[in-house]
TrEMBL record:
Protein name per Swiss-Prot or TrEMBL: Dienelactone hydrolase
InterPro entries linked: AB_hydrolase_fold, Dienelactn_hydro, FrsA_esterase
Keywords: Hydrolase
PANTHER family tied to this protein: DIENELACTONE HYDROLASE DOMAIN-CONTAINING PROTEIN (PTHR22946:SF0), DIENELACTONE HYDROLASE DOMAIN-CONTAINING PROTEIN-RELATED (PTHR22946)
SUPFAM superfamilies named among the record's database cross-references: alpha/beta-Hydrolases
Statement: the UniProt record of this protein carries the keyword Cytoplasm: no
Pfam families: DLH
GO molecular function: hydrolase activity
Keyword Cell inner membrane on entry: no
Residue span, Dienelactone hydrolase domain: 21-239
Top-level taxon: Bacteria
Gene3D superfamilies per UniProt: alpha/beta hydrolase
Length: 245
């Protein structure tokens, strides 16, 4: 397996000066690009791990910073302080995520005709809002992400395919939210897939913060579920975005 280089990448994203991380293999071949949107705490070890894992597969990855300055929200209270404005103001989200996509496709060697967004929790919401904004992104993958929207008609702006992977017992994403999302996608004639994992709660991918999230009452990391859902995603990506060799 080729080694992955990583570097800090500063870019403008709406109202913030963002500090993301670029992960890429050393290859002269054009690489499909993926922007990864982090969970509530920010661009932490879990988001960085996912960026590195995707780069190992042959994608050029920008692990985005949605808060500015690479800041980390290290308490539950602080997470709520930075997440709540994004939940309440989708125009704010869209400005920040489109800035990240612009930064990704501006990287040397990125094939801008093959791009994707992958997000976790609030980052899943971010990835979906990127698509709803009409951004030219071919594939969106949302892990245990928030699915609600104040403007369901905006789904008609979506240009690519959408995959949502969610836990059937997630207390943060109730069944009605999933049902409403599916109706939104169907009405807009989006190429969408939802996968509901039985007996699974929230944050099922985050092995790094597993104990902390479980203590808060909504996390349920499972190595088996993590690997299974990762496989769903990589297969979905590879359908239209063959990684660089």
């Amino acid at each position: 397996m080729m080694s992955v280089a990583e570097s800090t990448h500063e870019y403008s994203a709406g109202d913030i000066a963002a500090r993301g991380i670029v992960y890429r293999r050393d290859t002269s071949a054009p690489q499909p690009g993926i922007v990864v949107f982090h969970e509530g705490p920010g661009l932490d070890a879990h988001a960085q791990l996912r960026g590195r894992m995707l780069a190992e597969l042959g994608y050029c990855v920008l692990a985005a910073d949605m808060y500015g300055g690479g800041q980390i929200a290290d308490t539950h209270e602080r997470v709520m302080e930075v997440v709540t404005p994004l939940r309440e103001d989708r125009s704010l989200v869209r400005a920040r995520v489109n800035g990240a996509l612009d930064a990704l496709i501006a990287l040397p060697g990125v094939d801008r005709s093959r791009t994707a967004a992958v997000g976790y929790c609030i980052g899943g919401l971010a990835a979906l809002e990127l698509a709803r904004s009409g951004a030219d992104v071919g594939t969106v993958v949302c892990f245990h992400g928030l699915l609600d929207t104040p403007d369901p008609a905006d789904a008609r702006n979506i240009k690519g395919r959408v995959l949502v992977i969610t836990g059937a017992d997630d207390p943060i994403i109730p069944d009605q939210q999933v049902t409403d999302f599916e109706a939104e996608m169907t009405a807009a004639e989006v190429d969408w897939t939802t996968i509901k994992l039985g007996g699974v709660r929230h944050a099922f991918t985050n092995m790094i913060e597993a104990e902390h999230l479980a203590a808060l009452g909504f996390g349920s990391y499972s190595k088996n579920i993590d690997e299974r859902s990762w496989g769903f995603m990589t297969h979905f990506l590879a359908e239209t975005m063959t990684p660089a060799s």
